TrEMBL record:
Residues 95-117 are annotated as: Disordered. The lineage of its organism: Eukaryota, Fungi, Dikarya, Basidiomycota, Agaricomycotina. This is Protein kinase domain-containing protein. InterPro entries: Kinase-like_dom_sf, Prot_kinase_dom, Tyr_kinase_AS. Residues 100-117 have a biased composition (Basic and acidic residues). Residues 31-281 form the Protein kinase domain. GO terms for molecular function: ATP binding; protein kinase activity.
């Protein structure tokens, strides 16, 4: 049994080595773990640095950056809450789920049909469900960064790419995003409101307006998903965490406007994509 939300594994300890297969080239990237942003809820945001052993093909990456890992092993949903029982990760259930996925040829196609909530005693079923939700969040986040390229480096962080984290004694390699690190940041709820300028607030509002025009609804704009830096006298504000975002596909202008309206910040977020599979739990 592994506790989630309480203890970090040895590969998330300062100085630990990590390796990642960059997509789509499959280049192996060697990293060193620096710190984790805990507690984890869905993704795991960790700060890493490049290992000197990397070849020059990865020189476009900064020395330190955020790795946002979608490893279902650490989902906080596994912790007991109210009438919901604990659903601890086990290698056995992960391996059974991974074997069934392979046998049924359910690969990493982003358009897969998500499963319904499994029966209580179906441990591999839960493992599959957590895995699918990790994949949905990952696909939502990379799709959003892709559509919102024009906003990166101002009110969004720079998205450098993605890869598969290689972990020993596991039956899956979790997806991860490589993101610009905002040093000395505080979330909107942690800063003194007096130091947040009208200009910064205006830039955030303008950005949320742009999301809709660029075919994205964020669905989770909370103070915890807005970073201000430097924290004691902010000069930059960025919106992070697109794991629950919805992407415009073939909706008409009218349909899309309605979706944007429902998902407008301040209104209880409608579940645009991945989050709907967690609703009611
Ligand atoms: N680019 C970044 N630079 C600096 N800190 C970051 C960055 N991205 C994430 N963090 C830190 O990690 C925390 C979690 O990140 P994020 O919200 O993306 O993950 P999450 O698992 O979706 O979290 P949650 O579900 O709690 O909102 C942030 O609140 C912030 O403290
Ligand atoms: Mg968040």
């Amino acid at each position: 049994m592994t506790l989630v939300g309480h203890e970090l594994p040895e590969y998330y300890q300062p100085g630990a080595n990590l390796s990642l297969n960059l997509e789509p080239t499959n280049t192996l990237l060697f990293l060193r773990f620096l710190r984790a942003f805990t507690p984890f809820s869905m993704g795991q945001a960790i700060l890493v640095e490049l290992d000197p052993g990397n070849d020059s093909s990865v020189l476009y990456l900064p020395q330190t950056f955020i790795l946002k890992v979608f490893d279902p092993k650490f989902f906080s949903h596994r912790l007991p809450k109210g009438s919901r029982p604990a659903r601890p990760w086990t290698l056995e259930a992960e391996t059974t789920a991974a074997a069934a996925r392979k046998e049924q040829n359910r690969g990493r196609d982003p358009d897969f049909e998500p499963w319904r909530i499994p029966e209580d005693d179906d441990a591999p079923g839960w493992e599959e469900w957590y895995y699918q939700n990790a994949e949905l969040q990952y696909h939502a986040e990379i799709s959003a960064y892709d559509r919102l390229k024009v906003l990166q480096v101002t009110t969004l962080v720079h998205y450098y790419g993605s890869g598969l984290l290689q972990l020993s004694q596991r039956s899956i390699a979790p997806h991860a995003l490589l993101l610009e690190y905002i040093p000395d940041a505080k979330t909107l709820d942690q800063v003194d409101p007096k130091v947040v300028s009208a200009n910064l607030l205006h830039s955030l509002l303008e950005t949320t307006e742009q999301f809709g025009r660029l075919g994205i609804v964020h669905s989770d704009i909370t103070p915890g998903n807005i970073l201000l830096s430097p924290g004691n006298r902010p000069l930059r504000a960025v919106i992070i965490d697109f794991g629950e975002s919805g992407i415009r596909e073939d909706e008409s202008d009218e349909e899309w406007q309605k979706i944007v309206r429902i998902n407008r910040p301040g209104i209880p977020p409608g579940c645009a994509s991945a989050c709907k599979y967690f609703s009611g739990m």
